[in-house]
Design goal:
The chain has 325 residues and is an alpha/beta fold. It has 9 helices and 7 strands; from the N terminus they run βααββαβββααβαααα. Helix content is 48%, strand content 11%. A hairpin with a 5-residue loop joins strand 2 and strand 3. The termini are far apart. Bound molecules: NADP nicotinamide-adenine-dinucleotide phosphate (NAP). NADP nicotinamide-adenine-dinucleotide phosphate binds next to helix 7, helix 8 and helix 9. Pathway: Lipid metabolism; fatty acid biosynthesis; Lipid metabolism; sphingolipid metabolism; Sphingolipid metabolism.
């Protein structure tokens, strides 16, 4: 179905003198022609082309669209400009539907509110979790109360950071991811909380000394993680999607940027190691391990992108663990 671009045509006299493009959009799977756009300005962005496509296909709002140069290739970024792409004046793009989308903020809020509430249900020993005689009783071990404070602090911090600190570059993610992510966070929170708050829970073997050390590690890493999030936020002016090389700031917690590309993950790992030491609980150790594996995969990907994007990227940095990984 042909669709036109009146807004782009009004962009100015200079642009009117330029040679316009014809853009055809094919289905990446079937190769059927979905849309033909004529007189598209050379400086039109992929974001603008998505908006034009949306007009003729209202069910595919821009965040749902993946526009590619090759049916199996990478999605083009919204900021990419038509005349800078390797296409002729008749450009062919391929479209894939990314499925229903949900905002990142909603995703994070759902993911993080779950563990917070679930943990507290176990902490307060609401009925139907442990034997009825334990309903609404409290643990006699002070480490159980401390662990609850630390766990809650961690997720409240994450919620507040999601709302007030992070400047995300993508507005949305596929709706189906939320089920996967919530199963992960909510499931682990329930499993850990069940054992830590269990009436038969036994405190750490080295007692108070072990708990104090664990608390110091936990708090140190929480503050470190927060410092990195602030440093990353300050790299990106409000409303932009700029990515820069992060460098150490005046805050000593950020000096780890000298050696690591994703120190927020390093500190996150440290926090969970601290929590494992504090609770001496196997499910917590398992959650720490799985989180570490996942964050290592992400950190390696981000490290690779930094190397690809910035020629002057500091060579001493490792993805997540200094000199090791
Ligand atoms: N326990 C676990 O299993 C686990 C797993 C994952 C995350 N987490 C926690 O959740 C936090 C957030 O995770 P995340 O994966 O979203 O972290 P992230 O990718 O490092 O991003 C944090 C924020 O900084 C921005 N950012 C990153 N690098 C940037 C750069 N070079 N220039 C400008 N802005 C940049 C990101 O924007 P973009 O939107 O552009 O990415 C995002 O808004 C982590 O730090 C960690 O504390 C925990």
């Amino acid at each position: 179905m042909p669709c036109h671009s009146p807004s782009l045509l009004r962009k100015g006299v200079q642009a009117a003198k330029m040679k316009h493009y014809e853009v055809e959009i094919l289905d990446a799977k079937t190769k059927d022609k979905l849309c033909f756009l004529d007189k598209v300005e050379p400086n039109a962005t992929i974001g603008e082309i998505k908006s034009m496509f949306h007009k003729s296909h209202p069910q595919f709002y821009p965040a749902r669209q993946s526009i590619r140069l090759d049916p199996k290739g990478k999605s083009l970024k919204d900021e990419e400009v038509l005349q800078h792409l390797p296409v002729g004046t008749t450009a062919t793009f391929y479209f894939r539907d990314l499925g229903a989308q949900i905002s990142w903020v909603t995703v994070f809020l759902t993911e993080y509110t779950g563990p917070l509430v679930i943990y507290l249900l176990f902490y307060f020993r609401v009925p139907f979790i442990y034997a009825p005689k334990y309903d609404f009783t409290t643990s006699k071990h002070w480490v159980v109360h401390l662990a609850c404070m630390c766990h809650s602090f961690h997720y409240v911090k994450r919620l507040l950071e999601t709302l007030f600190v992070h400047r995300f570059s993508h507005g949305t993610m596929p709706l189906r991811n939320i089920f996967k992510n919530c199963t992960y966070y909510w499931g682990f929170a329930a499993w850990m909380a069940y054992y830590i708050n269990h009436p038969l829970y036994t405190p750490p073997i080295y007692g108070e000394q072990q708990i104090r050390l664990a608390l110091i590690i936990f708090l140190f890493c929480q503050f470190g993680n927060f410092s990195i999030h602030i440093a990353l936020r300050n790299l990106r002016p409000p409303g932009s999607k700029t990515r820069k090389i992060p460098y150490p700031t005046k805050n000593p917690f950020t000096w780890i940027f000298l050696l690591v590309s994703c120190p927020n993950y390093t500190y996150e790992l440290g926090s969970w190691l601290g929590f494992t030491l504090m609770t001496q609980c196997l499910p917590v150790a398992f959650f720490t391990l799985v989180g570490f594996i996942q964050m290592t995969v992400w950190a390696k990907g981000k490290h690779r992108s930094y190397l690809k994007e910035f020629r002057d990227y500091p060579p001493l940095r490792s993805p997540i663990l200094p000199f090791v990984l």
